[in-house]
Amino acid sequence: MNEPTGIDALLQRVRSGYRRIAPLAAYDAAGAGTALLVDIRYAALRERDGVIPGALVIERNELEWRLDPQGSHRLPEATGHDLRVVVVCDEGYASSLAAESLHRLGLHRATDLIGGFQAWRAAGLPVTVS
At 128, is the secondary structure helix, strand, or coil? Predict the structure, then answer.
């Protein structure tokens, strides 16, 4: 029987499989049209803190269904396995697990935002508050 893996070890293992992206680099990539920012935070956090202008909102429980280029429930933005997706959660933890899941679907360029939405906001990058 295998020993259980704690979340810290799991995050370290998952993150070693791809290069994460910092807020300013994600902002630049999205602005250049070379990355799709995907906000997976739940509605209460988006309502409380705002959203990143231009980010696609897909709550975590629908992420794989909406971004699988071969899936029957994919969004129009799910154009192929070469799509560079930057997953954004609140602080950069859940997004790492989500990016790894997208890798398993063949989205080999998927990554996540270091520090999540909170780091984006702290960097002074654009946020829209309703």
Answer: strand
